[in-house]
Amino acid sequence: MVVWITGFSGAGKTTLARAVSKQLCSTGLHPLLLDGDEMRAVLGEESGVSHEERRKLSHVYSRLARLLSEQGFLVIVATISMFEEVRRWNRDNNKQYIEVYLRISQQERELRDAKGLYKRNLDMVDNSYEEPWYSDFCFDERTSLEQQARLVTEKCLECLKI
Predict the structure, then answer these.
(1) How far is CA 142 from CA 91, 100, 103, 121, in A?
(2) What amino acid positions are annotated as catalytic residues?
(3) For a tag site, which of 12, 36, 78, 92 has the least CB within 10 Å?
(4) pTM of the predicted structure, to 2 decimals
(5) Cα Rg, the chain, nearest whole Å
(6) For the segment 97-107, what is each residue's pLDDT rounded down to a tens digit?
């Protein structure tokens, strides 16, 4: 299974991924967590931030998640994933796929700004991010982290028939 968590910088993707992973671990599962920032450091550090470079790296993330899933791992990916074609590829190429879109307002993301991207005006994604056409879950800041994690975890367990 692949759980793909997408949204703008500062939306809470990594935080949600960690919460879901923790809840799944409490059921005896051991998911693999692939965070976009960590994957970029490992797989694409030399990649730039142009539209095409981001697209190529997104496809690498997708193929890696599928490869691990096909080997029996439950994979949670937390990445901006700004291209609908990549998310559509995920849906078409993974037997079990759950997509989570964190649709957090810019005002809230600017308040969070853990990486200082908004403060430095470095978030180059907002203008080219393609919002998901279809996601299994679409959460905004009105839904608590606890509720988001619970709903996603329940969906994983339901899909895995656990």
Answers:
(1) 27, 15, 10, 25
(2) 81
(3) 92
(4) 0.89
(5) 15
(6) 999 999 988 88
